[in-house]
Prior knowledge:
The complex is a heterodimer.
Chain A: H1 7-28, H2 32-57, H3 66-79, E1 80-81, E2 86-87, H4 90-112, H5 117-137, E3 158-159, E4 162-163, E5 168-170, E6 173-175, H6 177-200, H7 203-213, H8 215-220, H9 225-251, H10 261-274, H11 279-308, H12 315-333, H13 342-352
Antiparallel strand pairs in A: 1-2, 3-4, 5-6
Chain B: E1 4-15, E2 18-29, E3 33-37, H1 44-51, E4 59-64, E5 67-68, H2 74-80, E6 82-84, H3 97-104, H4 113-118, H5 121-140, H6 156-168, E7 174-178, H7 186-201, E8 205-209, H8 213-219, E9 222-227, E10 230-235, H9 237-242, H10 244-251
Parallel strand pairs in B: 3-8, 3-9, 6-7, 7-8
Antiparallel strand pairs in B: 1-2, 1-4, 4-5, 9-10
Bound molecules: adenosine-5'-diphosphate and magnesium ion (MG).
The site of magnesium ion has 3 residues of chain B, from α1.
Amino acid sequence: MKNWLNPRSTAGIALISVALVALPFVAASGGQAWVRILDFAILYVFLALGLNIVVGFAGLLDLGYIAFYAVGAYAWALLASPHFGLHWPVWAILPIGAGLACVAGVLLGSPTLKLRGDYLAIVTLGFGEIVRIFMNNLNAPVNITNGPQGITLIDPVAFGAFRLSGNSQFFGLTLSGPQKYYFLLVALAIVVIVINLRLQHSRIGRAWQAIREDEIAAKAVGIDTRNIKLLAFAMGASFGGIAGGIFAAMQGFVSPESFSLIESVMVLAMVVLGGMGHIPGVILGAVLLSILPEALRYGVGPLQTALFGKQLVDPESLRMLVFGLALVLVMRFRPAGLWPSPERRRELQETAR
Amino acid sequence: MSEVLLQADAVAKHFGGVRALRDVTLSIRRGEIYGLIGPNGAGKTTFFNCLTGLYVPDGGGFTFCGAPLVADAPQKAAARGIARTFQNIRLFGNMSALENVMVGRHVRTRAGVFGAMLRTAATRAEEAAIRQRAMELLHYVDIAERADDLAKNLSYGDQRRLEIARALATEPQLLCLDEPAAGMNATETAELRELIAGIRADGTTVLLIEHDVKLVMGLCDRVAVLDYGALVIEDVPAVVQKDQRVIEAYLGA
Lengths: 353, 253
Ligand SMILES: Nc1ncnc2c1ncn2[C@@H]1O[C@H](COP(=O)(O)OP(=O)(O)O)[C@@H](O)[C@H]1O
Ligand SMILES: [Mg+2]
């Protein structure tokens, strides 16, 4: 942030911008499926940055984070689909989704404020499951969520008559639906990154870190730890809610299945593996962990055939095996994450000595 | 000099069978350095914890600046103007010395999430003021050259000073120091003594728990002695030093 204007960082930003613009076109040469994988990678960046506020900044272990994503997704699904016959515009639904997720965050936060570490993890885990089970069962006596079948035909993101689904023409260039979502997501992700950086280096960000370091000392200097922790839950949840809304619009379909515990665990793994509390690390973790399983999906089958002449292990199992192994290796050899903050790295080196 | 800043009225606290504080009544006047001494386990730290809201007393209470102190939460005590350090130093280890003091400004500043996200002019001005005041305080306790070092990497003496700077950042009327000289050598203790005298001269009342009797008797205007949770005497050092009960309970031991 400091050397915004020096030539080297200007060149760096220019390079990253060009790469970000070119990426969806390069990916499209491998099929629209790859563009969709990119879209999901950015969606996960979004989620991981939201969770990073709770886990990385404030040090509160949250295993139910995907519940807020679910709240945002269902908010969009219910307000913009034939299910209730509502078709509200994006500028109304996204804030509502974020607001509802924020309320859910406070609801989860308030009874758990006195808990820490493992205990908090268990309560948040339960919360995440409760939300999912609610979505699964709120179809009787009054059908709100349509139960396990989920909600279909959800409206895409649209600005007036301009819809992000389907192809459109720009200056003779054809953009596919996933490519248009890509640009929306990149724009949103940049906003989220800037917000995160600003929060981290603010009065509130310092209070979060102080609570993480020593809660009693934080109280003794007058920090209302209750409110500041709730704020972390609320902020993180709001980001999850926005990501959920975009997810619902992009997919056109939501069902409770998308919000299982494993999703919470994946987002947490992105934060931890990338480098807890360090924004560039968290982004890296989210991109790697969302793309690696997909790359493996396409990679392990052909690789086996090339090596052994036939399929020895079911590619799907092998994919998860390699993925799990990669996680273990990273945590073994880079315990502070792939790209930790400089302080965190020093901290671990010192304790290792 | 004679206005009462803090009045403790029959403050009691027990842990199971241990009566850590037995109806302790004492008063601290504005502008003085008040010493609290007593053998290990006498209840000095417990008194601090009750005063700063870490423990809720089982009986009695405090009046601070003429109004009752509802110190059921530490952050309220800090907001009222009572700051403290800890016997076993409690800094934010992985934050820089400067950031530690900046956290101390929290209770006297306002910026919220929206100000931070939008980086409004008011927020930026406040942030600059926080940084400047924190830097001044590091100069005040004489560790400015360590501003960017992580708190946990400071020497023991510097950590104690940093904790004092962080407490001062909350703009306290009453600064409570829990054994600030513990583990310090003679030079460091002499420097600390100067620092505490300076803090008082600049208008902050100081409540000092200390083991170093020489330091207490030389520095304090008045001294209270605790023994087994009960107040033995509260008077000027010259009288306390000569009191037979004190000599038996503490000085003689
Ligand atoms: N949190 C606690 N739980 C149980 N006993 C405590 C606690 N804090 C202090 N005590 C007991 O209260 C007594 C006074 O302790 P303390 O206030 O720390 O003494 P001092 O600071 O004068 O050395 C001791 O007997 C101690 O064991
Ligand atoms: Mg003590």
